Amino acid sequence: MQTRYVDRPIPRISLRDFESRIDQITSELVDAAENVGFFTLTDHGISTQEIEEMFSTAESFFALPDEVKATVPWNANNVGWEKNSQIRPSTGQPDTKESYQLQFGENMTSLWVSDEHLPGFKTKSLAFMHGVQQVSEQLMRCFARGLGFEEGFFIKCHDISRPVEQTTMRLLHYFALPEEPNGKTYHRAGAHADWDFLTLLFQKEGQSGLEICPGREVVTEFGIGDEWTKVDARTGDIVCNIGDLLMSWSDDRFKSTFHRVKAPSEKGDYFGDRYSIAYFNQPCKDSLIQGPLKKYPMVTGEEFTANAMKRNFAALQEKLKTMEVAA
């Protein structure tokens, strides 16, 4: 089926003079969360040079031999390196990528690539992560105000200094693909919604592919729409999307939007290696989650993540069953 594209304006929100403009910024963020589910941040305080240096650090990691990267393997705590292993319910096939997932706390014990293989990697990564967390906390203050919570409410629920924190930064490398696929179907990242609170994404200029598809009405849905909008890649911007957690925490007022990294398929698409950095704000395991209207039962951060993974697994099994029947 041919993809239908629709031009939708994606809000660009400046965080300039944050403290004096917090009311205006809150209004813009709430409007974007209610009506689009995606927005782009400018004037966020992380320089283009810092972003480019983090990309360079990530590329140095991915350039290591697989046997070296395998010394920091992915595990059930959602950290470590994986390659061609993430299968989306939307496609039933692995994404054509590798990633290295990092956290702040004890889950990373023995899972930082050693200085012997990549000097300074841990120090550089943590410094960047702390910078992104500062931007995240500004957004959390605004969303708390918009939903009628105490201003520091979401920050406390996502306290990265605690052993039970779950916030994750994911370094991503999508593999170069053949310009003539000869009938083979590739998926860089199949359509999905994130199950975190909020995702902050860094892209590299010229490495396109990100697309969004709004339309989700309730957080418990696993439906996928069919009208897509391309999102430009600009190195200095941060592209943000609402996750399932914030959708639930807002009683479905804020929208968790489906998105994908589309595999190139026509002239003008980008076929080369694509790098991006995603920062997933995830709550502490013991944070209590329930919206102001109490639309959903109260759950902990750990329970919310487990329930989201169960829904994802069930949807994947259904997709694979459908593919078996079709074959």
From TrEMBL:
Native organism: Aspergillus thermomutatus (Neosartorya pseudofischeri)
Family to which the UniProt record says this protein belongs: Belongs to the iron/ascorbate-dependent oxidoreductase family.
InterPro entries recorded: DIOX_N, IPNS-like_FE2OG_OXY, IPNS-like_sf, Iron_ascorbate_oxido_reductase, Oxoglu/Fe-dep_dioxygenase_dom
Entry-linked PROSITE patterns: FE2OG_OXY
SUPFAM superfamilies: Clavaminate synthase-like (SSF51197)
GO annotation (BP), single: small molecule biosynthetic process
This protein's name: Fe2OG dioxygenase domain-containing protein
This protein's record includes keyword Oxidoreductase: yes
